[in-house]
Protein: NitT/TauT family transport system ATP-binding protein
Organism: Pseudochelatococcus lubricantis
Amino acid sequence: GARVSISGLVKTYQTRDDVDVLALDNIDLTIERGSFVAVVGPSGCGKSTLLSLVAGLVEASDGRIEIDDQHIVNRPHPKIGVVFQSDLLLYWRTVLDNILLPIEIKHLDVKRHIPKAEELLRQVGLKGFGNKYPSELSGGMRQRVAICRALIQEPGLLLMDEPFGALDALTREQMIMDLQEMWTRLGNTVLFITHGIDEAVFLADRVLVMSPRPGRIALDLTIDMPRPRR
Ligand code: ADP
Ligand code: ADP
């Protein structure tokens, strides 16, 4: 997995009525290779902003973000996979073609990545579903496909913004149980936003609690539980 080093990160949003919103106030954070970090906190505390900045989707107002010593502020990094609350699958493409989309966009060899895509499908329990269309799958299955798409490029860093947030409680629980073992095996560094403190503690080795107005890391907890180590 990748190492993430954030220092002095500030994000101010300019709103239409000329009021500045300080969403992130001087965040310092180092995420070690292969660690699984969960971010929790009330709505508006800056979780999504933090993740969007690390993903290079939103411009920082100040500060540095380094991924494996590469300064990435305001520039998307090639080795990041992202999963959002909604699966964002293209309904007119098959499951397999959805997973291969990042490969296609980068003009890499799509054919050569098919076995990898099929292996990922197997790992998330969707062996043989490659030729189905998203509309033929349940919400939980579609989110598993979205995770495969994020992993196809073997990203050093996997970013997830409430990936199970739209799922019903039973499906969510099943997903978490199934995926825990997968994360352990993959060894990607993971930054994971959730509203569920229970899933944060269950999945992560470290939990950051953020507080709003302005967005800060209020608590940085190491979860010390017997669990498979990466
Ligand atoms: P979540 O709690 O899931 O992050 P939010 O409701 O905070 O969801 O944000 C959802 C989307 O709306 C995000 O893309 C965020 O950037 C945007 N957003 C949040 N607050 C504002 C705001 N005050 N003005 C404009 N866009 C906003
Ligand atoms: P969270 O993900 O923890 O809910 P966000 O990162 O979405 O928090 O939002 C942090 C703060 O920034 C909130 O006050 C939110 O209203 C504000 N915000 C987020 N996105 C925007 C935006 N696009 N424009 C203006 N304000 C925003």
